[in-house]
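Data availability excerpt. The first of two example chains:
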Amino acid sequence: MKRKSFLQGTVLALAVSLGSVATAQTAPAARSRLVLQVSDADPAKGALALNNAKNVQQELGAGKVDIEIVAYGHGIGMLGYAPSGVVEIMSRQSDGYAYVRP
């Protein structure tokens, strides 16, 4: 009697595993995430960060990628404010964003 229960459990576990594989294969792809750093007052570097964002959107599709530009230090005058740029970038990385410093 125990052998029958073991076999039923094995078959059930296999069915659940196969169901998980099928679901994983049909699930939509996760959105890409990118955070770009601007920490210099050099307008060329600010423009480079914007150009990088544009290129990523063109390559991956604007609707398939989340892009944030974090300005801090000398770059703060170019793009706005975050209380701590480094903490902001750390937070974005922990959320799955790729990190690029142009």
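And the second chain:
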Amino acid sequence: MKITFGIEALPSKGLKHQFAMYTRCTQNRKHRRINTNISISAEHGNKNKGEVRKSHPLHQQDNQMIQTYYRRVPDA
């Protein structure tokens, strides 16, 4: 049973041009998303790396928070 993990940005409900960052877990072709409670604008998100760009004023704090969620997912 292989389990894969990743970070993805999805459009926020009710907020224009904002994306919510999620940790995604996939097992047996079924996936589960866990919200990281981080919402950023489209130009500050890097989809390829799954992180917040350095142009965002709180990029270090947000990226650290995303990595914390990413490490905790196997326990969830």
